[in-house]
């Protein structure tokens, strides 16, 4: 049912001239799903309050609740076609009344982690892009069929939503930066091994893939009520700068079963790292910060090591956001290991001296679809300097791409060998004492790889071609003689 609903949504949105790409589809699906989710949760919370003898005050006023404007029903539960707005009336209500009302929650709510604040934040950052009220009415009827009342329903919806986010990777406008391959995330989580009671942080959370996968890894059916409450409310924290990514992240966590996600809409890099206090720190950092994009000079002043490379600023932030003994796993361009500019050298030195950079996973080309760069994953623990770095060169034995992506099986050997830092044909260790302290070069250089044959000179290539031509001519003469 859910898959049919999403397919039907796609057909409706393709027919609306206001929606042009997968990014638009994801955005519009998100705000509709969010309001339907909120309506279902309000019913559940009202029932719980009734059982406990408490009065429940709904978050939304009557005219703006889902059942009032999106899917009015008759007394027998059938759709009330007479009460349902459509066409121009529906668009005018959504744009002129609903969105302005929902936006007021940001000003009237002080707690940025509350659900009320997130309502205001979401609807202040996105817009209704439906131009046809008839298309929007069709979409509302489809979404109304969905039910958030069970964990099974949320699980199925989350899988479909993940597929939608993944498809954004080829939608242009840097959509791909919102999606990190889930097999890679799961392998990173297996290495850092988060436990209940620890906090997990991603300061560039995008669509919250790391937080959702960490949730999946940590939750179990036999958890106590206290542990379940800890997982729900005090375990996963994220920050995201971009509006659409923030909305996707909140919705993705909700669909995975986290009712009030601790994601804040803010530019993480605007925080001075020297102002980070112990209460702000976390046990685990999992992240894939954006590459390449530059930050303004005033933002760079928040960091001891100035750099126009956004990922370098994030890495400094992550190091300082970890508690002593905290564990990090961060994706970064492989050029970080070898660049000789002052910022790269200084940051490698800081990482090696303040953290134990115990493992480096070298990812093959094509791991990130459409990214055009090679990446590595840095695994480190804060609080002790690095003595030895273990490398693993991931080689799935095939070219990775859209039709042949990375899978969990590709990373099984890495996870197994990483536990004891074993050497193999694909893995080896380098002692920090053997590094050049002028550059702190950490380049991936597999000592077990066969040396590539030296390239032939242009003169040699021409000579070889002439020799083959002469050999071919001689063979043809011999054949002609036999005719």
From TrEMBL:
> Would the keyword Calcium turn up in this protein's UniProt record?
no
Keyword tags: Methyltransferase, Restriction system, S-adenosyl-L-methionine, Transferase
Instruction: List the protein's name.
Output: site-specific DNA-methyltransferase (adenine-specific)
Name the catalysed reactions.
a 2'-deoxyadenosine in DNA + S-adenosyl-L-methionine = an N(6)-methyl-2'-deoxyadenosine in DNA + S-adenosyl-L-homocysteine + H(+)
- The reply to whether Transferase figures as a keyword in the UniProt entry is yes
* Biological process according to GO: DNA restriction-modification system; methylation
Tell me where the signal peptide lies: none
Q: Using the UniProt record, name the top-level EC class of this enzyme in a single word.
A: transferase
Membrane-spanning parts: none
Which E.C. number(s) belong to this protein?
A: 2.1.1.72
The residue ranges of the DNA methylase adenine-specific domain are 153-449
According to the UniProt entry, its GO molecular function terms are: DNA binding; N-methyltransferase activity; site-specific DNA-methyltransferase (adenine-specific) activity
**N6 adenine-specific DNA methyltransferase N-terminal domain spans which residues?**
13-104
Which Pfam families has this protein been placed in? HsdM_N (PF12161), N6_Mtase (PF02384)
Q: Which domain of life is it from?
A: Bacteria
Regarding protein family, the annotation reads: Belongs to the N(4)/N(6)-methyltransferase family.
């Amino acid at each position: 049912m859910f898959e049919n609903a999403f397919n039907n949504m796609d057909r409706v949105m393709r027919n609306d001239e206001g929606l042009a790409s997968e990014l638009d589809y994801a955005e519009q699906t998100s705000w509709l799903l969010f309001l339907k989710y909120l309506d279902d949760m309000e019913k559940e919370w009202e029932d719980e309050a009734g059982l406990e003898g408490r009065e429940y005050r709904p978050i939304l006023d009557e005219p703006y609740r889902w059942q009032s404007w999106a899917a009015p029903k008759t007394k027998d539960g059938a759709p009330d076609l007479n009460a349902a707005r459509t066409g121009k009336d529906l668009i005018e209500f959504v744009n002129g009344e609903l969105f302005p009302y929902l936006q007021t929650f940001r000003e009237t709510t002080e707690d940025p982690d509350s659900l009320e604040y997130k309502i205001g934040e979401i609807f202040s950052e996105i817009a209704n892009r439906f131009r046809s009220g008839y298309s929007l009415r069709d979409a509302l009827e489809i979404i109304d069929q969905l039910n958030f009342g069970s964990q099974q329903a949320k699980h199925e919806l989350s899988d479909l939503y993940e597929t939608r986010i993944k498809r954004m990777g080829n939608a242009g406008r840097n959509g791909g930066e919102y999606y990190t391959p889930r097999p890679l995330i799961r392998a990173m989580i297996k290495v850092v091994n988060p436990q209940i009671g620890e906090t997990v942080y991603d300061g560039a959370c995008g669509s919250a893939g790391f937080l959702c996968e960490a949730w999946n890894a940590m939750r179990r059916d036999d958890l106590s009520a206290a542990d379940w409450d800890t997982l729900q409310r005090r375990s996963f924290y994220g920050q995201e700068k971009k509006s659409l990514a923030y909305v996707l992240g909140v919705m993705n966590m909700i669909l995975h079963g986290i009712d009030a996600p601790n994601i804040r809409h803010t530019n993480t890099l605007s925080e001075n790292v020297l102002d980070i206090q112990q209460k702000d720190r976390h046990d685990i950092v999992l992240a894939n910060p954006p590459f390449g994009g530059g930050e303004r000079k005033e933002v760079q002043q928040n960091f001891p090591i100035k750099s126009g490379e956004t990922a370098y600023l994030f890495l400094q932030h992550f190091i300082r956001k970890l508690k002593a003994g905290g564990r990090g796993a961060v994706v970064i361009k492989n050029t970080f290991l070898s660049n000789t500019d002052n910022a790269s050298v200084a940051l490698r030195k800081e990482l090696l001296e303040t953290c134990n950079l115990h493992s480096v996973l070298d990812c093959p080309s094509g791991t990130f679809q459409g990214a055009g760069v090679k990446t590595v994953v840095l695994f480190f623990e804060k609080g002790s300097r690095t003595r030895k770095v273990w490398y693993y060169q991931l080689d799935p034995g095939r070219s990775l791409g859209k039709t042949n992506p990375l899978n969990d099986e590709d990373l099984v050997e890495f996870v197994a060998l990483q536990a004891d830092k074993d050497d193999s044909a694909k893995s080896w260790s380098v002692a920090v004492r053997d590094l050049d302290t002028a550059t702190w070069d950490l380049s991936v250089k597999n000592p077990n790889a066969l040396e590539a044959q030296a390239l032939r000179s242009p003169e040699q290539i021409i000579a070889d071609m002439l020799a083959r031509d002469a050999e071919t001519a001689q063979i043809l003469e011999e054949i002609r003689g036999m005719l």
